[in-house]
Amino acid sequence: MSQWWEYPALPRGPGERAILKAKAICGGGRTGRLAKPGEFHIRLSSATQSRSGVQWRPMPTLFHLHLRGKTEKPGRQRCLRFLPITPTSLSFPEGAGQEPSSSFSAGPRRSLQLRGAPTLRALTWTFAPTPTSAPAPPAMDSAARDKMQPALPPGPEWPEQERAEQLARGAALKWASGIFYRPEQLARLGQYRSREVQRTCSLEARIKVGIRQEAGVLRAGCRTGQASLAASLPQSVVQSYLEGVKTGVRQLAWALEAVQGAREALGQAHALLQGMAEAAQTLEPLREQVVQHKQLQAMSQLLPRLRAVPAALAHTQTLIDAQRLLEAYVSLRELEQLQEETWAPLGGLELPVFEGLGPLAEALGQAVEAAAGAAGRLAREDPALLVAAMRVAEVDAGRTTSLEQAARDWRQRCLRALQEGLERIHFGTPLQPGPGALAEWLEALRVALPAELAAAEALVAPCCPPHYNVVRLWAHTLHSGLRRCLQQLLEGPQLEAADAFTLLHWALHVYLGPEMMGSLELGPEADVSDLEPLLTLENIEQLETIFVAKVQASVAQWLQKALDGDVAEWGREQEPDTDPSGFYHSPMPAIVLQILDENVRVTRMVSESLQRRVHGMALSELSAFLRSFSDALIRFSRDHLRGEATAPHYVPYLLATLNHQSALSSSVSVLQPDWVAPGALAPVEAALDELQRRICRLVLEALLAELQPLFAALPSRRWLSSPELLDDVCERTASFCQDFRHVRDPAVQLLLAEAERTVVLQYLRALMQGRLVCRGADERTQAAERLRHDAAQLRELFLGLGLEESVQCAPVLLALRELLNLRDPTLLGLEVAGLRQQFPDVSEDHVSALLDLRGDVSREQRLAALSSLQAGPQPSPPAGGRALFSLVPAPAPPLSSCLPSGSCA
């Protein structure tokens, strides 16, 4: 089946067109109602009938449809629908009295007989299968096309045609007169015309759709073979349809001819263009001659001026050498303008006469740049030259040229020259490291930089354009130059401690202080608020690390020297020096603390972070010094006891070191300012306490070396009968402790307490050795009385030396006296329990040794007395009590000391 676009416009006879026109003009009504067989009626709306006077009028029937072999009259329920007819497939059967089939038909086809009831004329409608892609028809001329058009006889005239035409015209005239009665409606004429065209197109489309639907119904009937249709069409309908087809074909032929004509015209134009191109190539030599002629003409006009160019170049160079910059620039611009005037006529050809113009411009630029680089000096000596250089740079910045040359950008060169000249003056010479060189250089900058900024504001700024911001440029240039110079300094060899400290203090305080960048005389034009830090955090960390490391090495060296000087005095023939109060004295503690405190205090001038680091270093070095001090004492004592280096005044110098320790302990608080955490000095205090115990132990070992021979005969029969042994002990102890008066409190109290405790421990150790066993009650009484007497004698001795009674350990002898003085052995358990309550560290071995000293205790009594030690809860040691019996094993090992001291009760 052919597609819709293959059908030409719907053919209509004059009568049909009149009916459609009348319907379109009236704007309403319905068509297509067959009142009775053989008649076709148009039904108009009441409004349309009233306007046009058209009523129900019978019209000739177009055709009848016969379905399933039965002829039915058309009515309202089966209104006629138009069938799309392909004109290329329309043919009349032979013998019908019509022309044969049109030559447009081709290929296999199916025929359908349509029989009309009144006329019995039949038409054969052929439905050709539609190919998927139809081949293009061959080209044909106008005569052939006219010959192939089907010749159809005109159909019969429609009787009501004239009447319908009149009615339509009358209705249209009446409608138009009503619409366009008022003049303002004429402006809407185009809108009415467009609307009527749209209505006409809509009606035609509806008729075409109806015909297409009827064709589908007819084809369905042909495929099933269950329906036969007959129709009788007027000759005028077919003829009108074919006329439309012919018109479309003719228009296509005209379009083809127009396309072919346009193609031929384009070909001719292309040929003409090719001919013109060939002709233009033949004119190329002539064109070159014309160009050369124009160049020669321009050269002849400019020749007088070109002859003066060498002299002008030499004159401009003379002006540059004489530093007449403005005149030199004017002469240079005249030469450049002449060069531009010759460049365009010569087509960009460079003349040899202008070869020296580029170097001349560069020489002038260098002169301007040199003047800008010496701006500070010229502002004082020759400000006119500086102003001329600035004006040349500014005027040249606005220069435009038609030559293909790069911009000279003298303004930027001047700015760079200003910065480079300023940096060259103050930072051009590299800093030579040396003692005090950095401090001198920084002091010179402290004076020179403010003066340079003042000169820039007063002298240089008036000679330069305002947008140069000379004061700000000076401040930022000096800052960046100084910053870069310091970076180079830090990247070089490591600075000394003094240089690192000086640089930190100068950069963090002096440079930003009121003497330099923080000066009130420096106006807001300097804009120093957005300057980068002179030293970065990494630089500050680096300098602080260098300073702390160098200071630590120096402090360690000085402390070692102080210790070595004091140790050298320990072997002298003279006793230690004393102060006006009679106490042993040495300047070493003061030197140590002064070195440490001064280093901590001086760092407050720089920053808190540096102060904290130096404070931590000071505490670390003090702890290391105390360890070295203790090691030196051990070597001194070992050499003295071995006889390798006997010191004439061994004990006095030990007592002098105890005073040193006391001085350090009392003065170490200077290393704990308010901002230091409370526990920061704990390691130093622990080291001082350990040093004190070490000194006391060495002194007590010397005392013990003198007392051990005396305690070898105690207890004995001689000891029971005579007090001579203890008198010798007391005499030797008193003589040894005479030098304690040169020791300051509280160290002397500790030393006396340890001495008294050492004597008591040695006494107990002698008792536990089992050298004496009482033979009877009388000897037990004598032994008890000797213990009481010895306790009183020791108490008086140490009271005389200045030891408080509350811290003495001699009362332990009175507790042992009660154990020996007991007459009934069965009560020993009570005495042992009392002894355990006073001295919780007493053991069974100690009690057994004491029971052996009694000499009258049986095995059962011993077991009963020892069992009392285990009876009851373990007593807690008294507050502040010191261990005694635990340091006296039986048999007693070599005596050891346990510090710090405390009450033995």
- Count of DSSP helices? 29
Poorly predicted runs: 1-15, 17-155, 225-233, 892-905
Overall mean confidence score, pLDDT: 76
- Number of domain units: 5
Q: Can you summarize the main beta sheet?
A: 3 strands, antiparallel
Strands, total number: 7
Spatial ordering of strands, largest sheet:
5-7-6
Keywords:
single chain; 905 residues; mainly alpha; 5 domains; disordered N terminus; disordered C terminus; Exocyst complex component 3-like protein; cytoplasmic vesicle; EXOC3/Sec6_C; EXOC3/Sec6; SNARE binding
Short description:
The protein is mostly helical and 905 residues long.
If you had to describe this structure to a student in words, what would you say it looks like?
This protein is mostly helical and 905 residues long. The protein folds into five domains: 4-129 and 158-234, no CATH class; 283-418, no CATH class; 429-535, no CATH class; 569-697, no CATH class; 712-720 and 760-905, no CATH class. It is 60% helix and 3% strand. The protein has helices spanning 14-26, 46-52, 142-148, 161-179, 189-224, 235-282, 284-307, 309-321, 325-343, 357-373, 375-381, 383-397, 410-427, 437-463, 470-491, 497-510, 537-568, 588-602, 608-642, 650-667, 682-711, 717-721, 724-736, 747-767, 777-801, 811-821, 828-838, 844-854, 859-870; strands at residues 30-33, 41-43, 66-67, 70-71, 90-91, 110-115, 122-127. A three-stranded antiparallel beta sheet has the order 5-7-6, covered by helices on one side. A two-stranded antiparallel sheet has the order 1-2. Strand 6 (110-115) and strand 7 (122-127) form a beta hairpin. Helix 11 crosses helix 12, helix 14 (437-463) packs parallel to helix 16 (497-510) and helix 28 runs antiparallel to helix 29. The longest helix is centred in the first third of the chain and has 48 residues, at 235-282. Its main location: cytoplasm. Keywords: Cytoplasmic vesicle, Exocytosis. Residues 90-109, 128-149 are annotated as: Disordered. One of its GO terms (molecular function) is SNARE binding. Interacts with EXOC2, EXOC4 and EXOC5; may be part of the exocyst.
